[in-house]
Amino acid sequence: MSHPAPIHVIGGGLAGTEAAWQIARQGVPVTLHEMRPERMTEAHQSEGLAELVCSNSFRSDDWENNAVGLLHAEMRLAGSLVMAAGDAHKLPAGGALAVDRDGFSQEVTRRLEAHPLVTIVRGEVAGLPPADWDSVIIATGPLTSQALASAVQEVTGEAELAFFDAIAPIVHAESIDMTKAWRQSRYDKPGPGGTGADYINCAMSKDEYHAFIDALLAGDKTTFKDWEAATPYFDGCLPIEVMAERGRDTLRFGPMKPVGLSNPFEEGRRPYAVVQLRQDNALGSLWNMVGFQTKLKHAEQVRIFRMIPGLQEAQFARLGGLHRNTFLNAPRLLDASLRLKAAPRLRFAGQITGVEGYVESAACGLLAGRFAAGERLGVAIAPPPPTTALGAMLGHITGGHLSDEEGERDGRPRSFQPMNINFGLFPPAEEPQTTADGRRLKGKERGAARKRALSHRAIADVETWLAAPTEAAAE
Prior knowledge:
Structural class: alpha+beta
Strand content: 15-25%
Radius of gyration: 23 Å
Largest sheet: 6 strands, mixed
Shape: globular
Distance between the termini: 25 Å
Helix content: 25-40%
CATH topology of the largest domain: FAD/NAD(P)-binding domain
Number of helices: 13
CATH class of the largest domain: Alpha Beta
Strand order of the largest sheet: 6-2-1-7-17-16
Number of strands: 21
């Protein structure tokens, strides 16, 4: 049996591996290019495909009430490799889906290596792909090599493609003082594989919190090279000390918020502030500090983070760090099937398109892979409906949700920033106004009903989209 010419996917992260999997599932050969271990990055530690370099959480798995949980559900329906591997290696994490990062990466690598239509090539693709590669997906993510980023800048005419992202520290469980810390999920909520007591919590009094803030603000931080100095941060992954600079209470209403928690050492009272740690591996021997991405120098991290009650003797398996991310002005540069308008043989997927988050990156790879396989087979693949999480995300990054008037300022595209999937990207849905017994919904009840209406509509629409027959593409 003869096969069509292969599609090339550059980048073995979440988006690239998902794209390669979706292509192969359609019966099309795919060559997956990953530069590691020939060339490593500042953030990766292994040569495994789909290595998670920051958090090990895929965030909420609640498909009825959370947009990212809905995206999980849609991807499972679409046969996602990333979701299958995540489900196979899930860890207890309250209402979230957290994974054993090593087991997850090994699972993705094993499945792709075993697929007869997937060829994995190790080595950097420097610059633009060769001209005879007529169908390419660039899924190099936030750690795109400088040679490729420069080539993309040249073909797109973009002046800037980068911003800064930060990594949270990981602590050895045995070094956490459990006479001061306790196990509890917010509101005791169990999640996939969880019990409702899935986080380790370290409480701070008012005085301890403000001393910690003072230390964060005064701590010695990483300095940038001259060429990096003007690179902006992405607000969704700010270093903790940058958040502290925005106001002394910013952290108490962010990653250190105490809501839904009660301190057993203080007669069950809610703490002033809380540092949470989430399980990072299947053995439960490693725990990451939730929301504690940082650009503090390593010695300062050890000194300052040991001020946290329960972490006075903490031993760190990995300290935090900073890395430079790359993304396109996608609404101006990409079409509705993620092709580069200036060079349609090139598609983009993952964080380089301006999606933010592990799941969103993989979902973007899923779409790019389906679009590319359909094109290779000569069939038209319609975009997912905007009422779905997949469609809402695609609409955000390709500009379909903006009118020309809204999208332009003085003849120039409006500033485009990475964004997580959220219900604000969905068109409105009919929602119930009253309860089953006729009582009018108010406040939080109405908001919850709205989310459920959006989610149930999305699942129905994505099932219809996935089941729709494809048509031969126009010549």
